[in-house]
UniProtKB/TrEMBL annotation:
The gene is rplD. Forms part of the polypeptide exit tunnel. NCBIfam families: rplD_bact (TIGR03953). One of its GO terms (biological process) is translation. This is Large ribosomal subunit protein uL4. Part of the 50S ribosomal subunit.
Amino acid sequence: MANVAVLNMKGDQVDTIELNDAIFGIEANEHVMHLAVVQYLANQRQGTQSTKTRAEVRGGGRKPWRQKGTGRARQGSIRSPQWVGGGVVFAPKPRDYSFKLNKKVKRLALQSALSVKAAEGKIIVMDNLTLAEVKTKEMANVLENIKCGKALIVMDGTNNNVMLSARNIPEVKTASVNTINVYDLLKYNTLVVTKDAVAKIEEVYA
């Protein structure tokens, strides 16, 4: 098991913790991580884009000129795709882009992403992370003390003061154990996680 230093909010080491190899020490599977990222991005799509086909564009019911004898190309409607203001060929319509992954695949992808962070030494464990009030400056000071910039902060529960204090800091995102995903783990350089959250991750995703 890998040993990771446990820091306090001042950035001082106060303890060490052993990470479970079944979650933080497996061989990363790039394929399932790719699937998890594609699924996450696909599920974020609204799928509300819509364009009118030639059947839906207003007008164009009358043939613009007779079939023969004018010297011009034959036309059946002024709403054909080649006309300005005409319909769109293969027009996009509202659709659902989301798809599902098996639970075992999602778990393996999450374990792989956590193992990548552990192997790169980009996991910072904190003994506690609480703020008495909503104060962005205090949260910024904590991040400066532990020397991390673009970070994903994971906590064991909902800490509104920490979440509200961190939301205005660029390239910092907060999440609870139940809402972490592979996309965020790979997007942010550093994973900042509380000691209690580590225990909960090992319990939920083992």
